[in-house]
Design a protein that fits this description.
alpha/beta; TIM Barrel; eight-stranded parallel barrel; 16 helices
Length: 391
């Protein structure tokens, strides 16, 4: 068993950060750890953007540059190349949210096609990603998920959504770039799941190219995984899944309570962790049929996956297993894993500063609410600052 606690090595974790970048990271996580400050900062930032106050430079030099790669693909190149020098790949994530028109959905699809073109020339970008709601109206996914009859115009609209998925997945296969499709709220996810399964049937004929995302805070996802595996074996295609814990817990629980149905969310953090780890075990037991992208900032889950790979005699860089974290977070996991030869990718968000603000605000709020996340970042940054002072 792998008992070496590699994630405590701060020299490797922060090897790409100079002293001033280390100080900035410490300052940001210190601010994020103070919940009232995050709420005030969020409100003030939203006001400043709506009032068109000149704050983009301040945002860019602080929170944006810490959590985002740049404003466009070319702007991200420096970050991509630096990380790849340490063996960490990049997943370029166009983090512009909340679009509603057909024109905007087509523009999002064209952006992903452009990212695939960009990625095929750069070894450091083996994976692309998109959100279902970036390619179609949320309320349309919701209606399809409920099994409602679509109007003629809605059918045409849904066919356009299917067309966007097809265009992106086809191009991903042609260029051997994996495509991760994010998961969203449960009341629209059934439609997205069905569509992604169709893409897997069509494009995962030789190996996984299309990956769905399983949010393991949902207690029904293990059953879903088993059912999808059965279908894939019968249909002779491969599965690809990104496993995450989940990002919409409060919204899910509030809606369930408001509408009077049983929440799809596990009853506790412990149950979610158990669910996530159960999926990791199942997938590593069935790698002949599927590939796993473990999107996690949880050290215990990473150690579990490392140990399972070791028990099964898998190489650290087995192409069917990837670890993933967000840019600007958990460098102690990403860079220590890549130092040991594992496949690691950072999600690198990018986009115009004002358009990426909803993403940045969510990151700040998430770090404030996730117990231990910010404290762990601060402890590691403090340890590295002390280490450098003794040199």
């Amino acid at each position: 068993m792998n008992t070496d606690l590699i994630f405590d090595n701060t020299e490797i974790a922060f090897s790409l950060k100079n002293d001033s970048e280390l100080e900035r990271a410490y300052f940001l996580f210190k601010m994020i750890s103070i919940e009232p400050l995050v709420k005030i900062g969020t409100a003030a930032t939203n006001f400043a953007i709506k009032a068109r106050l000149p704050i983009e430079g301040l945002i860019r030099s602080t929170v944006f540059d810490h959590f985002c790669g740049g404003i466009n693909e070319a702007d991200c190149l420096n970050v991509i190349e630096k990380m790849y020098s340490k063996g960490v790949s990049s997943v370029l994530d166009y983090s512009v949210e909340g679009k509603e028109s057909e024109k905007e959905f087509d523009a999002a699809k064209d952006k992903i096609l452009g990212i695939i073109d960009f990625a095929k020339e750069i070894e450091a970008i083996p994976i692309a990603v998109f959100k279902p709601s970036g390619f179609g109206r949320f309320s349309l996914y919701e209606k399809v998920s409920r099994g409602d009859i679509l109007t003629e115009s809605e059918n045409i609209e849904w066919n356009r959504v299917v067309g966007r998925y097809n265009e992106v997945c086809k191009k991903a296969k042609e260029n051997d770039i994996a495509i991760l499709i994010d998961a969203e709220e449960s009341w629209m996810q059934r439609a997205a799941d069905g569509l992604v399964t169709k893409m897997m049937q069509k494009y995962n004929t030789e190996k996984p190219i299309v990956y769905n995302t399983l949010q393991m805070y949902r207690h029904d996802r293990i059953a879903f995984l088993l059912d999808e595996h059965k279908k894939a074996k019968e249909g002779k295609y491969f599965l690809g899944y990104k496993l995450v814990r989940g990002a919409y817990m409060e919204k899910e629980n509030d809606r369930a309570e408001d509408k009077g149905y049983v929440s799809p969310i596990c009853v506790s953090k412990f149950a979610t962790d158990e669910n996530f780890n159960k999926a990791v075990r199942y997938m590593t037991d069935n790698l002949e049929d599927m590939s796993l992208f473990a999107g996690t900032h949880n050290e215990d889950s990473c150690y579990l996956l490392m140990n399972l790979m070791e028990e099964k005699g898998l190489l650290n860089n087995d192409p069917r297993v990837w670890f993933g974290q967000l840019y600007g977070m958990s460098d102690h996991i990403s860079f220590n894993l890549s130092n040991k030869g594992y496949n690691v990718a950072k999600y690198v968000p990018f986009g115009p500063v004002k358009d990426v603000m909803p993403y940045l605000i969510r990151r700040a709020e998430e770090n404030t609410s996730v117990a231990g996340q910010t404290g762990r970042e601060l402890a590691l940054l403090t340890k590295e600052k002390k280490r450098r002072k003794t040199l």
